Amino acid sequence: MTAATLPPSTPADGPRRGADLLVECLVAAGVDTLFGVPGDTGVVFYDALSLRADRIRHILARDERHAAKMADAYARTGNRVGAVEVSSGGGTTFAVGGLGEAYAAGVPVLLITSDIHTASRGSGALTEIDQLALFSAVTKWRALAEDARDIPALLDEALRQATTGRPAPVALVLPENVLDQLVEPAEARLPEELTARATALPRTRPAAEAERVREAARALSTGSAPAALVGSGIHVSEAHGTLAALAERLAMPVATTIHGKGAIPDSDPWSAGPVGNNGARAHANTLLAEADVVLLVGTRANATDTNSWTGPSRNGPTVIQIDVDADRAGRNFPGSIPLVGDADTVLAQLLDAVDRAPDAVRQIRREELRAANSAWEASLGSVGGERATLPDLPDEQLLPSDIVRILAEELGPDTLVVADPGTPTPNTSVYWRTRDAGRTVIVPRGHGPMGYAIPAAVGASLARPDRRVVALTADGSFAMACGELETIARLGVPVLYVQFTNNSLGWIKMLQHLYTERRYFGVDPGTIDAVAVAEACGVRGIQVRDLGKLRETVREFAASPAPLYVDVQVPHMIDHLPPVPAWEAALAGDTERPVY
Q1: Among candidate residues 520, 230, 247, 209, the one with its CA nearest the CA of residue 362
Q2: pLDDT of 517-547, one tens digit each?
Q3: How far apart are CA 312 and CA 314, in angstroms?
Q4: pLDDT at 469 over 90
Q5: What are the Cα distances from residue 256, in Å, to 42, 45, 424, 559?
Q6: Which residues pair with residue 498 across a beta bridge?
Q7: Which CATH number fits domain 3-199: 3.30.457.10, 3.30.450.40, 3.40.50.970, 3.30.1020.10?
Q8: pLDDT at residue 114 in the model
């Protein structure tokens, strides 16, 4: 019997195509959602998927980049592996653009890609490309299946690689003849580890070396001004409760990177808010800059996260870094104390080893942080209050800070937020408030790819159908991803899209404004009627030009969630500065462009 004559109703004890075996393995591993775009080399795999549509939901995207972004957000929101499928040639090269963010941000995405027939290798076949070489820059592990009987073991290893150590994308490449190959049941048994647990995070919880923990505990206990900087590793480890307990025991303020937002609720008395150089509270940056002991938890602690190496400084404070990846613990802070292990496990080790801060010290630190947070809150004023500082702001334009604050007020803290780079990022980071600990805000700060939020919101919504989702995008990102509005309409995902429109590539234009003597070049494209495009794709669209209408529109969405695209005009960054510390410094006279 050949693959071509294999009937769809093949009994479980009969021979199976490699494609059927692959689907069986995915089902066993708990993969219930697969994002992708079909292609020539993957036809047999799609046939196998059709026979198990009761167990795996296939989400057809309109672009492989966007399918990968959907899987990325699905993984972040569900704290499990996201899966994406593409075919050889254009599909694989497009997928690279979607995986770069996931790789840099430490997100576990399983890429399944079909390839040309092995007999055509080296012949210049249509879509031929060295996929292993192609994916080497955006995956942690990659393998080519040469025999269908190897599929179970390869998938098992792929998922193990994706979920152990620092999470990251992995790729499994299957030539079309391997997908066609018939395999007898006795020749391809599923590994015992290939269960639903194989796709969940964290897969392991290693502890740090005891002596290193004691050294770190001494530093934290004796420091006069300890502080913590927390990134997305806290979400992967689900270590929110242990972090809060350690902060309380040490009377230690906790600041977060943008990826770490939600590590500790904004309402917690030890929360200092977001820091860094792309959406931060000024007093939080100052707090880290002045700390004498800084605990880094699950963060790359790169230049953006640390406000160009000032919070903390590379010279002076004692730096302790918790990271599950030994290569990253201490990488950016030579001489620091590396604690290699799972964030929750290591924080628990520290919790057992540190001394409780004296009550008098606790009271002073808490009051200082409360006063700083209160002063920041007071500086915001009421929604719309900043308009008085912009007398030339046209009536039809709204401030991004007002938009985000209205969304937060009307939608509530249970809402999932997905934001694009550019205007949405710093405003979401600073003005969206969290009430509970957890990853409810997703901003792509691994690479900062434009066009992320529109497809990513689909993945977030499918991972958490019990939550409302709001996606903040901008006109530049819209132009890159608007094709997925048809996907949104087809699926009916209850996502509210809000587009910040200033008819420019605003972030780059602002850099030119500050650092190249206001020579604006290549940053002013033509306009696109986003509402008309949304309507053409089947999504209700509306233009909103005043805060009252915005509030009314958001309330309507909250009462009856359904796909909705809202276009809002905002000022250029040149006219209204977002909360970006480096730009504030530039306007004050420091014209040296920061190193990121």
Answers
A1: 247
A2: 999 999 999 999 999 999 999 999 999 999 9
A3: 7
A4: yes
A5: 42, 42, 18, 32
A6: 472, 566
A7: 3.40.50.970
A8: 97
Coil/strand/helix, residue 205:
coil
> Which pLDDT score is estimated for 397?
95
- For the chain, the average pLDDT equals 94
Residue 492, sorted as left (phi over 0), alpha (psi -120 to 50) or beta, turns out to be: left
> Does the model's pTM come out above 0.90?
yes
DSSP state string for 8-40: TT--TTS-EEHHHHHHHHHHHTT--EEEE---G
Write down the pLDDT at residue 3: 40
pLDDT at site 384: 72
The owner of tokens 């206990």 is 221
The two most distant CA atoms of the chain are separated, in Å, by 81
381-587 adopts what CATH topology? Rossmann fold (3.40.50)
The predicted-structure confidence for 88-102, as pLDDT tens digits, reads as follows: 999 999 999 999 999
pLDDT in tens, 206-244: 999 999 999 999 999 999 999 999 999 999 999 999 999
Class of the CATH domain delimited by 210-373: alpha beta
Both tokens assigned to 267: 């309402």
Helices (H), 193-342: 210-222, 233-237, 240-250, 282-290
Q: Which of 418, 17, 308, 329 is nearest to 184 (CA)?
A: 17
Length of the chain: 596
3-state helix, strand, coil split of the chain in percent (to 5) is 45, 15, 40
Instruction: Give residue limits of the domains in the chain.
Output: 3-199, 210-373, 381-587
Fold agreement between 3-199 and 210-373: yes
Token representation of residue 103: 């790789």
Query: How confident is the model at residue 7, as a pLDDT?
Result: 43
Distance separating the N- and C-terminal Cα atoms of the chain = 59
Q: For residue 500, what are the β-bridge partners?
A: 474, 568
Query: What does the DSSP 8-state code read for residue 260?
Result: T
